[in-house]
Specification:
457 residues, alpha/beta, Aspartate Aminotransferase, domain 1, Aspartate Aminotransferase, domain 2, five-stranded mixed β-sheet, three-stranded antiparallel β-sheet, 16 strands, globular
């Protein structure tokens, strides 16, 4: 059949409140042009993030009813531990309330001031947690990963030549190395198995532990199955196990590819690092057998890790992004190509060539999409990754100005996506009317969450 249907049927619904364009303009102004500051009840289609926003299955809800809420040694923890070890093979599994907690713990015990952490591209919370420890997050994605319209099967790959040179020079200041799968900041682009393997070899050459940011590991594994020679006939679980076999540990926001609304974990093989991580966990998250989560959350997470590896689901998931990408490309809208697994990334710099990076074209596009269709996306550009020049105080722009439309798992249907496509195309037709923005207030870290904006002069 030519038509791909959602591989699920709907058992419960949530009402969406319709708003007028006039109402949305007023809401946007009151929110200081920051979509994070808009109430969820005022959003028509919420593509802000795929993190914790999906719909859990009947099996996950059923598992929550069996949750063991014992403070120590609950049955739920051991079911969760078994599920994670079945995929990753790591010795120590440490639950956390979400991925950034796993990052905070890892970097607190493994990183010191002046250290440098290489990756293909660190995402926002990863970078912020590294910088909070006065270390440097170093991005070494391949050059192709920075050209939005260039077609390449694995644009998330680490630049191995640059990594080799970096390690040769700075290896004494590198306590761990990382790779993000899929590469979220670069368009949800996958990393090849060969690249994971070679990254591991380079780091291990200098005795440096290799950690995977694994929040979308299943999507990455399915891309490998589709695009990399030798993997077409392998099960996604087999591919995932091989990916993790090259690493010494991982962090994961389970709110992505474990398909739960809350949860995460830190996993590793090193006994000393695990002991230090658990000690900090007890201080800040909870006992090591719950780590800030209820037992029912751990049970739902265990089931989600099984369901995310179903190929019917992954085929539908990747095809959803490809469908929107194809429609937008046909309309002349530049996006990161090929589409990734969890989102479509619009090139806001190309969308608004008359708006300079200093006036945040991605943030402008987020506002315009909300005005036109009640759609909430997120800027991944100079608001999220730009920096201040320490001498002049002027903005140093990011390399790309993107708007990410991330798709909650199993939450929206075909008509929702068609509506969103129509609204984006209409916004593109009105692009000349858009005006730039300037920041009126910002916090010291992760400014995109809470910064306030107004129209630029």
């Amino acid at each position: 059949m030519k038509t791909m249907i959602e591989p699920f049927k709907i058992k419960m619904v949530e009402s969406i409140r319709q708003t007028t364009e006039e109402e949305r303009i007023e809401i946007l102004e009151k929110a200081d042009y920051n979509p994070f500051r808009i109430k969820a009840e005022d959003i028509l289609i919420d593509f802000l993030t795929d993190s914790g926003t999906g719909a859990m299955s009947d099996r996950q809800w059923a598992a929550m009813m069996t949750g063991d809420e014992a403070y120590a040694g609950s049955k739920s923890f051991f079911r969760f531990e078994k599920a994670v070890q079945n995929i990753t093979g790591f010795k120590h599994i440490i639950p956390t309330h979400q991925g950034r907690a796993a990052e905070r713990i890892l970097f607190s015990v493994a990183v010191k001031e002046g250290d440098m952490i290489p990756s293909n591209t660190h995402f926002d919370t990863t970078r912020a947690n590294i910088e909070f420890n006065k270390a440097e997050a170093v991005d070494l994605v391949i050059p192709e990963g920075k050209i939005p319209t260039l077609e390449h099967p694995f644009k998330g790959n680490m630049d191995l030549k640059r990594l080799s040179g970096f390690l040769e020079k700075y290896h004494d200041n590198v306590p761990i190395g990382m790779i993000t799968i899929t590469n979220n900041s670069g368009g949800g682009q996958p990393v090849s198995m060969e690249n994971i393997r070679e990254t591991s070899k380079l780091l291990h050459k200098y005795g440096i532990p290799f950690f995977i940011d694994a929040c979308r590991f299943a999507e990455n594994a399915y891309f490998i199955k589709l695009r990399e020679k030798g993997y077409r006939d392998k099960k996604v679980l087999e591919i995932a196990r091989e990916m993790f076999s090259y690493a010494d540990g991982c962090t994961m926001s389970a709110k992505k590819d474990a398909m739960v609304n809350i949860g995460g974990f830190l996993a590793m093989n090193d006994d000393t690092l695990a002991m230090n991580s658990r000690n900090l966990l007890i201080l800040t998250e909870g006992f090591p057998s719950y780590g800030g989560l209820a037992g029912r959350d751990l049970d739902a997470l265990a089931v989600g890790l099984e369901e995310v590896l179903q190929e019917d689901y992954l085929k539908y998931r990747l095809r959803t992004a490809a469908y929107m990408g194809e429609r937008l490309t046909e309309a002349g809208i530049d996006i990161i190509r090929p589409t990734g697994g969890h989102a479509v990334y619009i090139d806001a710099k190309a969308f608004y060539p008359h708006i300079p990076a200093s006036q945040f074209p991605g943030q402008v596009l987020c506002g315009e999409l909300y005005r036109k269709g009640g759609i909430r996306g997120v800027e991944i550009g100079s608001v999220m990754f730009g920096k201040k020049d320490p001498e002049t105080g002027s903005e140093i722009p990011a390399e790309m100005e993107l708007v990410r439309l991330a798709f909650p798992r199993r939450a929206y249907t075909q008509s929702h996506f068609d509506f969103a496509i129509e609204a984006i195309i209409e916004t593109y037709g009105e692009r000349d009317r858009a005006k730039g923005l300037k920041i009126t207030w910002e916090p010291p870290f992760l400014r995109h969450f809470t910064a306030k904006f107004t129209l630029a002069d």
